Amino acid sequence: MSLDDQNRHFRTDHLQADLGGRSARGGMVTLSAQVFKFVFSTVATIVLARLLTPEDYGLIGMVAILINFVGMFQYLGLSTATVKWAELNHRQVSTLFWINMGLSAAIMLITIASGPLLAWFYKEPRLIGITIGYGITILLTGLAIQHEAILTRQMRFTAIVVVEVVALLIGFVAAVVAAWYGAGYWALVLNQMVMTITLVIGVWVVCRWRPGWPARGIGIRSMLSYGGNLTGFNIMTFFSRNLDNALIGKFWGPYQLGIYSRAYQMLLMPMQQINAPLAAVAIPALSRLADSPERYRAAYLKILEKVVLVTMPLAALMIATSDWMVLLLLGPQWRGTGRIFMLLGIAAMIQPVTKTAWWLFSTQGRTRELFHWGLMGGAIAIVSIVAGLPWGATGVAASYAVADLCIATPLLFWYVGRRGPVRTSDFYRTIAPVSAACVCSLAILFLCRPWLTAVPSLVARLSIAFGITVGVSLLVLSALPAGRLAMLSLKETLLLLLKRNRTIAEPAK
Length: 509
Fold this sequence. Notes:
By secondary structure, the chain is an all-alpha fold. The protein has helices at about 5, 20-50, 55-75, 80-85, 90-120, 125-140, 145-155, 155-180, 185-205, 220-290, 295-320, 320-330, 335-350, 350-355, 355-365, 365-390, 390-415, 425-455, 460-480, 480-505. Helix 10 crosses helix 15, helix 10 packs across helix 17 and helix 11 (about 295-320) runs parallel beside helix 18 (about 425-455).
């Protein structure tokens, strides 16, 4: 195959003609898929929580800290560079592919070798076998990094969604079968391995690009510098987000870690189902608009507006009904998770917003500033976790949530808004109407709790609470001029997507 044929995989000029439409359709495709994935993941959590124990999840949580850390180095920010870079060629991406593979192989060996150290640290010999399983998964992941980045760069979101959903389904089936036959924590290890294998096969099928041999002197040094700063930020974020797991596991044991990690994962699951696909759509779209500041600002604020419209009321609902949700989804043996779930929900209200800030840093080429923010934000999180540790998992959750909302978030808004098209005031102006709606929803929900508790069915209680949240949010947003504009913008976007879908479907009739 000629070099021109290979380079066609990296061209983006054809996207400019309908960038807004592609972004909107891509957002709708990925969000629709994430709704399915969220529902399916919730069902998977319910099923596996009844087949496994808190200790099983605690064991995986101990190893996950290491896996999440070393996993950052196999990416090295190079997938984001592939998505962002205006001009790319076959030799550059081939070299990035082999860098990712070399790092993946090295990290696999380091992970496996770390198994005995983890077993000694936690005094838990079962961790040795778990690290071997996850080490193999890391190597397999390296095969898909650049292929996924190319699909994202080309805004082929439907292909990405299909592959991810298929991998999720097959991985879940493997985990349930293993858990049913008494595999215990090995069911969770098998879940990751099967999902990764399916994902690798899928992206290689839908992305026809095949890597060549690595080369020197082809202009990837700037990409490595970009990726290095991004990785530095990820490292600091990792420490700030996983120190809680490490310390709770060390000083309070696998049970406390199990209920804490389940609360954290259960709370973030719906948020991740929304933020992850939006990031996949927003980063390539904003990267193409980097030279048009006004269009860039308008595009980002429209995305942010829709993020808060969905995630903030959902977080308010989860805070007010945390104990009922835990009982319904996980069962009575997880009752201790309820209070932790409620406290972490305070941070979950704002984190979908703060996570979008790194889109601004990365798409504006400000990864050095992103790294500096990682140092500042990480320090705040670490201090809050250590401060809450004497009170166990509940103390850590309370301290972390308050520090994140009251200290880290305002500081981040100031830091990212100092430069670039999006200013600090834009954040507050965009989230203010929905924040007011959430405060009112929380107040009404807590006032109604005594009455709702009398309802015998948990499903009925949660359904009524959901209705109250939606009703109060709509009333408050309707009473505010900015809230009415936000709802109108959402309505126009949905109508535009429906119109486009009908236009696409008509010729096929």
